[in-house]
Design a protein that fits this description.
The protein is mainly alpha-helical and 193 residues long. The protein has helices at 3-15, 23-30, 38-45, 48-54, 65-79, 84-91, 99-106, 109-125, 129-145, 151-161, 166-173, 176-183.
């Protein structure tokens, strides 16, 4: 039997015991057997995914990248801290990517979690340029018409005219004072300018 044939047979046998074969599961299964090691598999196929594909164990991808991200976000929201065991429990009985699918797609569980955290961070900290332009315009407009000009008077004005709130401006610029500093606007607390 060739090395490739041995690997394929070993992978298929190990996979028959689990719905999705991971490296760790294979290593446990092969530990006390006369089977190719994980390193043998890498020498022949280069990657775990390539070996799974060659042995017919990797289904054609039926999930897109956004499906993985959405499943991980939902699991995090509905299940709390995002761990692999928590995800497995959450995913049971749902039509979502399996833990094995996620590990295969991202390369590891920790990389999957980092990808989702990075996207969440981007989503909550980066505002589109158009929104920033609207904030700048609103601040200059309010500065021209409000006396005194400060966070309190701006907030009332912004609510009345449906402009970005002080909180939104603060999130975008880091703080209310920093926004004013960057735009060269001075906060005026009394009626004089």
């Amino acid at each position: 039997m060739t090395k490739e044939a041995e690997i394929i047979q070993a992978l298929q046998t190990a996979a028959s015991l689990t719905p999705s074969l991971t490296v760790t599961q294979y290593q446990r299964w092969s530990r006390n057997r006369d089977a190719p090691t994980f390193l043998d598999i890498l020498k022949v196929y280069g990657t775990w995914t390539s070996a799974l594909k060659a042995s017919g164990l990797l289904e054609p991808r039926r999930y897109e990248s956004h499906d993985f991200i959405q499943a991980l976000r939902l699991a995090s929201i509905q299940g709390g801290k995002l761990t692999s065991s928590q995800y497995q429990q959450w995913a049971a009985g749902r039509n979502v990517p399996s833990l094995g699918d996620i590990i295969t797609h991202f390369g590891s569980w920790s990389l999957a979690v980092k990808a989702v955290e990075h996207l969440e961070e981007e989503h909550f900290t980066v505002q589109p340029a158009k929104e920033k332009a609207e904030m700048v315009q609103a601040l200059y407009e309010a500065y021209r018409v409000l006396t005194p000009f400060n966070a309190i008077t701006y907030q009332k004005w912004a609510k009345q005219f449906h402009k970005p709130s002080v909180a939104k401006v603060s999130r975008r610029f880091g703080s209310w004072k920093r926004a004013l500093y960057e735009l060269g606007i001075q906060e005026v607390t009394d009626r004089k300018r």
